Amino acid sequence: MVTVYDYPGAVIADRAGVDIVLVGDSAANVVHGMSTTLEFGMDETIMHARAVKRADPKALFVVDMPWLSFHVSVEDTVRNAGRIVQEGGAEAVKLEGGRKRLPMIQAILDAEIPVMGHLGLTPQSVHAMGGFKVQGKMVDAAQALIEDAIAISEIGCFSVVLEGVPDILGELITKEVDIPTIGIGAGPATDGQVLVFHDVLGLGSGNYPKFVRPYASLADDAVAALERYVADVTSGDFPGEDESYHVSDEIAAEMLRGRKSG
Ligand code: KIV
Description:
Blueprint: E1 2-3, H1 7-15, E2 20-23, H2 27-30, H3 42-53, E3 60-64, H4 74-86, E4 92-96, H5 102-110, E5 115-120, H6 126-129, H7 139-155, E6 159-163, H8 167-176, E7 181-184, E8 192-193, H9 197-200, H10 218-235, H11 249-261
Parallel strand pairs: 1-2, 2-3, 3-4, 4-5, 5-6, 6-7, 7-8
Bound molecules: 3-methyl-2-oxobutanoic acid (KIV).
Residues 3, 22, 24-26, 64, 118, 161, 163, 184, 194, 196 line the site of 3-methyl-2-oxobutanoic acid.
């Protein structure tokens, strides 16, 4: 699974044969330059989802429910999940949280919308967690996460993202639940893995979290390409003959005559 936020990203992910594309609310960070996902709302979510939908992805298309879109009331939650499906074209929604969110998950499932869970270092809880910190490092906290995972799997989530937990906990939860686990910073034992598009392609600033393996350096490649473009424009090398539109010599001569006599 990989996150995507727009049409070209979805086309690229699909060409690469990714199984699941996720419009993550990490768009807040990697696309909009926000420091947390808390500023990202329903309208931005729908806009990104629609851009991805236009690529008609073959991959399963999941969209994140943004912060506060599933916290206020059950009714509000179902309407927001419904908008994500109806307006954004999602085939499933993902939401952060465990047992606390069971009534909301149940209501979304009752509206026939598949739900992917998300446990561990859940970025929407950044302030409650006291920062972006690995979760489940002590036995009690690990136990609580295992219980959360069991609860959301038993209620009917079709899979769960495990983010920022020790590898042993990723393994334990994967053994404990009947649904696929998808890890990000959760070690190698989860059933699947997810990374953020900009991280996996090296499109960011270069300060990637420990769990990221950048498979390309597209930001460096882009800078180098734009530097060559700037140099070619400055030297007059671009645009060249082949990159310009031409008229016949006759018409060109007439144009020049007209210009002179005018
Ligand atoms: O928003 C996001 O990118 C995510 C992934 C880290 C799973 O939720």
